[in-house]
Amino acid sequence: MGTSRVVALCAVMSACGHVGSAAHSKEPSPTLRSATGDTATLAALTASHDATVLVFWSSGCPCVRRYQARVDALAERFSARGVQVLAVSSNAGENYDEALSIARERGVKVPLWRDEGGAVAGLVGARSTPTAAVLDRTGALRFIGWVDNEREPGAEDREPWLEQAIEGVLTPGPFTKRTPTWGCTITRSLSPIEPRHCVAAQ
């Protein structure tokens, strides 16, 4: 996908809060690689489930680590309802084998796929980790944003944005389609990577 098209998609989403076609656009569907070396297009992955959640992941991001238990729990909760949750490694400077090793050491339960060149991140407009994107069976992008409003599960003032989006896709029903995101910037080049910390991204 050309840079101009990605910029245009982000501009539209920012201006009117609209999310739409992603995996099944007219452009060739980007490919992801699994831990076993298998590859699959994003279109093929989304076609096999009622909803697909992509959580953009980086081993060096403290925000990813803080949210991992919530993501794993969400995956377990929705697995019987036709929902798959995938972690996606898109950072240009992150070695995939090392990322897989770190994920195993941490006991990460969701599968970690490699997004070489950041094509999937660019397609859905993800600019930081752990931004989450929800796509339906047709490949339409239905949600892009944060898991919640930085409140622990059970907190009275918690807003479970990602959970509400998944429920809205499955039911269907109304939900917020785009939320603010924070986290660590997804790198798109092999330039030296500065130490990361949690910052507002959108």
Structural class: alpha+beta
- Report the β-strand fraction as a percent range: 15-25%
Mean pLDDT value: 85
Tally of distinct domains: 1
CATH superfamily: Glutaredoxin
Radius of gyration computed on alpha carbons: 16 Å
Number of helices: 6
Looking at the overall shape, the CATH architecture is: 3-Layer(aba) Sandwich
Estimated helix fraction: 25-40%
Biggest sheet, in brief? 5 strands, mixed
The side-by-side strand order for the widest beta sheet comes to 5-4-3-7-8
Helix-strand string: HEEHEHEHEHEEEHEE
- Runs in which pLDDT lies below 50 for 5 or more consecutive residues are 1-19, 191-198
Report the principal-axis shape: globular
Q: Which CATH class?
A: Alpha Beta
Q: What distance lies between the first and last C-alpha atoms, to the nearest angstrom?
A: 22 Å
CATH topology descriptor: Glutaredoxin
